[in-house]
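Moderator note: this is an archived Q&A kept for reference. The question asked for a predicted structure of one protein chain; the sequence and the answer are reproduced below.
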Amino acid sequence: MRFADLSPPLGGDLLRALEDAGFAEPAPVQEATIPLFCGNRDVAVDACTGSGKTLAFVLPVVERLRRLEPPLKRNQAGRGGVGALGGSKVGAVIVSPTRELARQILRDPGADVAAFKEGGGHVLVGTPGRLDDVMQRCTTMDLRTVEVLVLDEADRLLDMGFKAQLDAIMQRLPRQRRTG
């Protein structure tokens, strides 16, 4: 099976990006997870390190946000600033137990923070404490548009004592969303 054979199908741009990155065939965890998470299902995945879990949730996040009608638009601070336009609309929140794991997903945190300040952002990635803090402080962040919540290594998040922060984050998000 190839990524192009998954149903519902991934978009052409996403398939080209996968091909350009050298990903031709989905790993078993991706083959099982992506169709469910791209559809209207919540997903819980248990697989070993190195099995492809990160791509199994990142691809559906990108695909779900790509399909939004109306699409999330780049934040444009015009008359009255960001707040007057309803704030930076967030489409997905990915909670990771450690900064190291968050960096694997986010890649370059410094550049992404600067980009969010400049023009908003559609995906938030971070540890529970950091995300909770940012959500409290950022008055221009519009979380009503969140489509997807991913709890990366959810068992570890709870084992590490982040229940209070996770509860605070989830209380700010819409109840109608996909969770993985």
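Archived answer notes: DSSP finds nine helices and six strands in the chain.
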